[in-house]
Prior knowledge:
- By secondary structure, the chain is mainly β.
- The protein has helices at about 10-15, 25-45, 100, 115-120; strands at about 5, 50-60, 65-75, 80-85, 125-135, 135-145, 155, 160-165, 165-170, 180-185, 195-210, 215-225, 230-245, 245-250, 265-270, 275, 280-285, 290, 300-305, 310, 315, 320-335, 340-350, 355, 360-365, 370, 375-385, 390-400, 405-410, 415-420, 425-430.
- The chain has 2 domains: about 5-245; about 275-430, Beta Barrel (Lipocalin).
- Helices cover about 10% and strands about 55% of the residues.
- The strands form 7 sheets. The chain has an 11-stranded antiparallel sheet with strand order 1-5-6-9-10-11-12-13-2-3-4. Strands 16, 17, 19, 22, 23, 24, 25, 26, 29 and 31 form a 10-stranded mixed sheet that branches.
- Mean pLDDT is about 80; it is low at about 1-20 and about 245-270.
Amino acid sequence: xxxxxxxxxxxxxxxxxxxxxxxxxxxxxxxxxxxxxxxxxxxxxxxxxxxxxxxxxxxxxxxxxxxxxxxxxxxxxxxxxxxxxxxxxxxxxxxxxxxxxxxxxxxxxxxxxxxxxxxxxxxxxxxxxxxxxxxxxxxxxxxxxxxxxxxxxxxxxxxxxxxxxxxxxxxxxxxxxxxxxxxxxxxxxxxxxxxxxxxxxxxxxxxxxxxxxxxxxxxxxxxxxxxxxxxxxxxxxxxxxxxxxxxxxxxxxxxxxxxxxxxxxxxxxxxxxxxxxxxxxxxxxxxxxxxxxxxxxxxxxxxxxxxxxxxxxxxxxxxxxxxxxxxxxxxxxxxxxxxxxxxxxxxxxxxxxxxxxxxxxxxxxxxxxxxxxxxxxxxxxxxxxxxxxxxxxxxxxxxxxxxxxxxxxxxxxxxxxxxxxxxxxxxxxxxxx
Length: 433
């Protein structure tokens, strides 16, 4: 396989020159298109709000990884700046999200900064690594390197800080030119930073935001940091309920007492398009159309509420109301047995022409081919006794994270067919102010 070392600054200029396409290898031209496409995606990214769920884990030196807590925030971003609030809160702040946790490790900057640095503005070199099939998708892989002298990346800890370079890989869909996965390793760690590694992995997916608008957004991420002591912190992050957010800037010039004052800037919510549903209501939803393995992640799906959803004996959500969402995951695996990982995300419900935010936890899925866990038994020959092979059987259970508004499950088999009428049951949750 031919490998080409590509200079990031020159690729776009050369590939765009008239008549130059025939002079360069296909991977150079493909990289140019991916970079240009990423730049266009970031330039048109609107104000977006997502619910961010962070499951934090810690491993003591020579110990085992153990859960610490789960943090849920709402993040508002235009791809360049991030503001944070509690889910459903009315006031966003640009304080680092660690202020909501009080202690430990919490990452940020997943929406646009890394893509911009590594594929748009950075002094980056690239190496084409060929084609790969990942989770049932055909992708191309590039390695990259951003030296510390050109990097603006700084890691700050209580016990030290320092500037680092970045190295890693990204995977992209050659047909859509969307970046699907980005792996970032802190490189050239200085002695002032007490770390042996700091790794960030971001998985992107095209997300429909309403009114026909789509955007390439982070769907999940992982941040891992290991110290000299051997202590490891890990964040597993998921982004759900992403939507267009009507935000307005507020500028105050006059303090009201006649004295001059510098302008003060803030941001307040003007988004009243999605009303909250009452908490504690059990809702049964069936698919309006079938889903099979040919459908793409991000495809729009609809469901229908099929029974009275009551709160305190009163029908809060009438039957035949429509629930809107998308396919969040649809991954095909062949090992250890053929199976699919499917995640259906419902984000809003429409009741009598009024839209409500569908913030709910999954209670159950229709029994049958869909399973909330995947149990796999494997057999291994460990010896022979009296000419008879001795077989050892071991079992392993796979699980999926629970996320608000997301039904995640396994389907065994080489083909996928979720029929129209496939049923899920939910319980609505309050959005904490």
